[in-house]
Amino acid sequence: MRSIMTVILVLTALSIGSAEMLLNDEGSNFQFHAVTEIGFAKVLSNSIQLGRTGTPFNYVTDGGEDILFPFSRLTAEAQFLKHHEIIFLIQPLDVRTQVALKNDLLVDSVLFPAGTPMNLRYGFDFYRVSYLYDFAAQPDREIAVGLSVQLRNASINFGTQDGSRFTGTQDLGIVPALKFRARLPLDRRSWVGTEIDGVYVSGRWISGKKYDFTGALLDGTVRYGRKLNDWLDAFIGVRYLGGGANGSQERSSNDYTDNWLHTATLTLGFDMK
Questions:
Q1: Looking at residue 134, which CATH number applies to its domain?
Q2: What is the predicted pLDDT for the residue at 253?
Q3: Which of 38, 106, 176, 268 is the most exposed place for a label (fewest CB within 10 A)?
Q4: At 255, is the pLDDT very low, low, confident or very high (cuts 50, 70, 90)?
Q5: CB within 8 A of 66, min separation 6: which ones?
Q6: pLDDT tens-digit profile of 34-59?
Q7: Is position 111 within any domain?
Q8: What is the phi/psi pair of residue 14, to 5°?
């Protein structure tokens, strides 16, 4: 559905022609951008252990994540007073696979014997709000730094296909990060750009409780774009998206999680101004 809506939106925009801007008044101190990307993601590695006595599980070799998955993201951006930018991102990431287990799998206290047909879900949708200060503040270029606040919406499930056994974990959390974005022209119509959000934290102090915790996030892309008309750019993007966490909420076996994900994506994007 998201891909269909994207295609309809782009085709509608292209059909209007380049006679006038679609979203903004030329010369206004407030500029709005709608950016969308569609493509595919390759899981480079994805490992998880739930519970200190739980079995480490490799989603790529044992969980069916050795194929390509649909990938999309939607961004709304507002630029005001030339230098200031607010960015809102919606990033779905919901990977579902079906496999027969190669080995026994213990998740928390639930045992799934080898050979069991499984339904697996690795859901890690997130929503991000960012502020950037653009030191270039020119229409054809950008060199900006700022901060991001990400809302993590994780849902990781293990269940048998007959419904007899099920377990999983859900987590809603806030992740702050540093942000950098740049865009430079190559000629009158083409440009290159990059966008990076990242954070690494470790120690008991970050959790606010008496347990050790390590967490990291890196979301970085490189783009090549072409100006189609005064208000529409198309671009190709290559992205690394990864991170994870290691820690527990209490000194017990039931609240321990060790999960690290690494992905690469290739997308086609459109920036409407």
A1: 2.40.128.100
A2: 46
A3: 176
A4: confident
A5: 43, 60
A6: 999 999 999 999 999 998 899 999 99
A7: yes
A8: -65, -35
Residue 11 to residue 33: CA distance in whole angstroms: 17
Residue 84 counted as domain residue? yes
* Gap between the Cα atoms of 204 and 147, Å rounded: 23
| Residue scoring higher pLDDT (152 or 7) | 152
| Full domain range(s) for residue 232 | 2-23+33-272
**Domain count across the chain:** 1
pLDDT at 137 (0 to 100)? 72
Q: Could you identify the residue written with the tokens 């970085």?
A: 220
**Distance in angstroms (rounded) separating the CA atoms of residues 241 and 261:** 8
Mean pLDDT of 134-148: 92
